[in-house]
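Most newcomers find our protein records easier to grasp once they have seen one. Sequence and backbone structure share a record, each on its own labelled line. Nothing more is needed to start thinking about how sequence determines fold. As an example, a complete record with its sequence and its structure tokens follows.
=====
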Amino acid sequence: MKYSQTIGIIATLILAVLCFMPWTYIASRQLLVYGMHAEGTNFGKPGLFHLILGGMMLLLFAVPKIGAKRTNVFVAALNLAWAFRNFLLLSSCMMGECPEKKPALYIIIVLAVIIQLMALLPKVDMPSKTRA
């Protein structure tokens, strides 16, 4: 795809912004759980790994080498797995309490899928073969 690297970079930047938005709301404890601010829970900072992987993906999307593109597929797969892990962990009911899922939690899954697709479809310039 012609614009896969640009779309991947934009999706990664949006993912980084969403790490600072609310992901779930736990009504019984009146807690908003953010990607980088989950005080009052045992979730830690679930968005921190997204930011680390996002920095790596930004670099790998920008480098026009085939090795960088292959590595980016692996890093994007880790990011997708982490997004699914966060969705399952933060949206699951615990001891009869079901948190209210915020839109950012769904958008993170969609962006992780888009990033994975853009990593799988890089624009790689092939050397032209000349006939002798």
